Amino acid sequence: MIQGIHHVALIASDIEVSKRFYRDILGFKIIAEHYREERDSWKVDVLLPDGRQLEMFSFPGSPTRPSFPEAQGLRHLAFQTLDIDFVIAHLQKHGVDCEAVRTDPYTQSRFTFFQDPDGLPLELYEMTQ
User: Ranges for the VOC domain (predicted)?
Assistant: First the structure.
């Protein structure tokens, strides 16, 4: 039986810029980096605080996201937090713009959106215990 999500994979236009963003700004830990010579591609494994992972890839000449924000496929990647205001302040300190905080009409949880260096839509979702 499926037990949950193991990882989400992202393709970065500049692997070094994306590593800095996910490691230095979001605070995630890089646990492995592999250069795949036959593909001229990097694979970087990033550990999230809950034990799940992001896989970041670099592929030369990969196309940009076709439209924003409603392209088919992955709509956004959501990260949970217990203090959305603290995380927003941290992001803004690092030059990351966040949308206005909204409230989910079904759960009453607060959330906002921001982007990674390649424009991937990311969400902060405040858990209210």
Answer: 4-127
